[in-house]
Design brief:
- There is one protein chain.
- With 373 residues, the chain is of the alpha/beta class.
- The mean pLDDT is 97.
- The chain is globular and about 55 Å long.
- The longest helix is centred in the last third of the chain and has 25 residues, at 271-295.
- It is built from 14 helices and 13 strands.
Length: 373
């Protein structure tokens, strides 16, 4: 099987440990173990929970405790609708591996996480790209989706909230997409790793798993829950799909780590506190970023409504990769070039690190932009 280089991951692997001011980070600022245990009131008791654990494979599909908590993130899901995976990256890969065969029509939005178009392309799918544009607020064009979703379409792939644009489809918009999918008979896979970071309300947008009988939602502890180090994600979907996924999962996962499972359960038992922290960070920092964008004549954007990242359009005669390398070398600030997401002319910025890092990074970015005029 041949597959394209993963643009964003190669970029991150190459430069993330070399930067001084990381504005490429996509997770809400990571929690320490101490912070998580303090939230949970377990600082003095955690060893009594961990020391008796025998480090076997544990529950193959994820502990009942954890799967029940994950199901509780949805309106209509139960334990049998959930399987635990190695991050959302594992969840997404398993869904594509389970559903997509050579010749199947797969529709993926772009920009999005590259898995969602490069994996089906590598399987020989009839891949159709639904380009997201500023003109439509980086939301899928429903008329174009209707045109692409011919009868027999196997899979429509979404990312909500979107990475890298921060665009958000609300329940009503998702229901329109469900109508289109139902006519064609397609499954919908919605990568929802940023769910819980909406800028308004309770922060939680509707999930495709709750809206459609062939809806598949993937999520993780990495982005919204600030625990990327656990490497733990999940699939929420109809039980028949979970069974089909589990057949493939037996070949590449077996189980996630018992400690990862245990700490993820602790986090989700205290999700209200974690979500409050995440929303405080993302809402405060987006306001900082918005004020900065308004002050920069060379930068424009469609302001995000959710997530942790934004796509910045810049008005300079250089490639996005050249821009980012030069910026990093001169200032220590790391962004992600749009070319890594097939969005040349743009830059992805992550704004959910600490406010101090964001402010200093933007200050240095401003000086860099002045030098380039």
């Amino acid at each position: 099987m041949k597959i394209r280089d993963f643009g964003v991951e190669i970029w991150m692997n190459r430069y993330e440990t070399k930067c001084e001011w990381n504005l490429a980070e996509t997770c809400v600022e990571s929690l320490t173990v101490a912070e998580l245990l303090e939230m949970a009131g377990k600082t003095g008791t955690i060893l009594s929970e961990l020391l008796p654990l025998k480090l076997t494979y544990g529950a193959i599909e994820g502990s009942d405790r954890l799967r029940r908590l994950i199901a509780g993130l949805y309106e209509k899901q139960d334990v049998e609708n959930v399987v635990v995976t190695h991050g959302a990256i594992g969840a997404n890969a398993l869904v594509h591996e389970t559903l997509v065969e050579p010749g199947d029509r797969v529709i993926s939005v772009l920009p999005t996480y590259q898995q969602h178009y490069s994996i089906p392309e590598s399987y020989g799918a009839d891949l159709q790209i639904l380009k997201l544009t500023e003109a439509n607020g980086f939301l899928p064009d429903l008329q174009e989706l209707r045109r692409l979703a011919t009868s027999g379409t196997k899979l429509i792939v979404l990312n909500n909230p979107n990475n890298p644009t921060g665009a958000l489809m609300d329940r009503a918009y998702l229901e329109k997409i469900v109508e289109i999918a139902r006519i064609s008979g397609a499954w919908i896979l919605c990568d929802e790793v940023y769910r819980g970071t909406d800028q308004e309300g309770d922060g939680m947008t509707a999930s495709i798993a709750d809206l459609y009988e062939k809806g598949i939602s993937t999520g993780s502890m990495s982005k919204t829950y600030s625990l990327a180090g656990l490497r733990l994600g999940w699939i929420a979907a109809p039980s028949a799909l979970i069974h089909a996924v589990s057949i493939h999962r037996d070949y590449n996962t077996i189980s996630v780590g018992m400690l990862d499972d245990h700490f993820a359960a602790i986090a989700l038992e205290n999700r209200d506190k974690i979500l409050a922290r995440s929303q405080s960070i993302t809402r405060t920092n987006l306001a900082i970023l918005s004020e900065w964008v308004d002050s920069e004549p060379l930068i424009s954007w469609v302001k995000p409504k959710s997530g942790t990242t934004a796509l910045l359009k810049y008005d300079l005669p250089m490639s996005s990769e050249a821009f980012c390398i030069k910026l990093l070398e001169r200032t220590g600030v790391m962004l992600t070039p749009g070319s890594a997401m097939e969005m040349e002319g743009y830059l992805r910025i992550g704004y959910a690190n600490s406010a101090a890092i964001l402010r200093e990074g933007l200050k240095r970015l401003s000086q860099f932009l002045k030098e380039q005029r």
